[in-house]
Each structure stands twice: as structure tokens, then as C-alpha cells.
Design goal:
Helix content is 70%, strand content 0%. With 192 residues, the protein is mainly α.
């Protein structure tokens, strides 16, 4: 499928491929039902200089993509995971090509989700571009709003996972700076 340019999607792909980020995202998805697309959108808004969302904007964003994510993205992921390594008497030789096609469809569905979020919340980046620490603070604040909407409370290992994810978006900041921003945003266990 051919999509128009989408800097939010491009950012998500770059960050997701950075060391440890995919594993951290999938761990939060598995443990708390986090929509990785929304999580990376929250980070992109901050990183791109587009700032923070309000609580209402976060609620609107979640309402906008909830049905798509629930009825399209998750079922595709479930089928892809279900046929990994074959299924019953169906040999992997036959199921793997289909699994690859399902994975491509799942990625397209996630791309649609990013396109929808970006279109609904497109706003210009700040001029001049704020420093990285300010942009990371906005990203952490967006993530805090998202996790609050989900009722997610992080334990220490999960805070480290979030530090890895934010580090993927802000490689110029060290883990200590990122951990402090996570704490300031109220995401660290001691802040709960």
C-alpha cells in the first residue's frame, strides 16, 4: 500500500529500530495493553517540537483510534502470532508465507493509525525548535497522560523500559536525564 509522507510514522520506525526499543515497547504492550502506535505518537509530538497534549486532546486521540486498533490492528496481530511456527497439522512451509502477508497488513494498519493521529493533531512545530530536554519533557508528559488514561502504573523495570523508549527518541540525552524527566512527569513508581 502506498501512503503519503508521514513524519510521525517515519519517527516511529526509526525509534522502534533503535537498540532495545522494540523489546521495551512490546513488554509494555504485553504487560499493560499499551498501544505502541499511540505511545510513539506521544513521543513524536514532543520530539518534533509540537509540544504536549491536553487531557482532552489525549481522550480525543484515544477515542479516534480505539475502534481501529481494537477491531483491525489487534486481530491481525493475534492471527499472525497464532500461526507462528505452523498451526496444528498445517506445516510452517505453508503458514509462514501467509504470516508474512498478515504482518505486512498489520504494519499497514498501524500506518493508518499513525496517519489518523497525525492528521487529527497536526500543528506546527515550535519556532525556534526547543532544546532536546524541553521536547523530551513534553514527550514524557504526553506519555504520562496516555498511561493515566489507561490506568497504567509502572514498576521499576518498566520505568527502565520507558527510559529506553524515550532514549530512542532523544539519543542526545543520557539515561539519567531521561529518568529525571520520567520522574518529573509522575511516571516513576516513587512518584505514584
Amino acid at each position: 500500500m502506498k501512503f503519503p509522507d508521514n513524519p510521525c510514522w517515519d519517527f516511529a520506525l526509526i525509534v522502534y529500530r533503535r537498540d532495545g526499543v522494540a523489546e521495551a515497547c512490546l513488554a509494555l504492550q504485553e504487560s499493560h495493553g499499551v498501544d505502541v502506535n499511540v505511545l510513539l505518537f506521544c513521543c513524536w509530538l514532543g520530539e518534533s517540537g509540537r509540544g504536549g497534549l491536553s487531557a482532552k486532546e489525549m481522550a480525543d486521540a484515544l477515542a479516534l483510534v480505539d475502534r481501529w486498533h481494537r477491531d483491525v490492528v489487534r486481530p491481525l496481530r493475534a492471527v499472525r502470532n497464532r500461526i507462528k511456527g505452523g498451526l496444528g497439522d498445517i506445516d510452517v512451509e505453508y503458514s509462514d508465507p501467509l504470516r508474512g502477508q498478515i504482518m505486512a497488513s498489520e504494519l499497514d494498519a498501524e500506518h493508518v493509525e499513525h496517519m489518523t493521529l497525525m492528521a487529527a493533531f497536526e500543528r506546527p512545530a515550535a519556532e525556534p525548535m526547543p532544546p532536546a530536554e524541553r521536547r523530551a519533557k513534553d514527550a514524557a508528559g504526553n506519555v504520562a497522560l496516555y498511561f493515566d488514561a489507561l490506568g497504567v502504573k509502572l514498576a521499576d523495570p518498566e520505568t527502565a523500559q520507558l527510559t529506553t523508549i524515550l532514549g530512542g527518541g532523544f539519543p542526545e540525552l543520557d539515561r539519567g536525564q531521561l529518568a529525571a524527566l520520567i520522574d518529573t512527569a509522575g511516571l516513576a513508581p516513587s512518584a505514584a
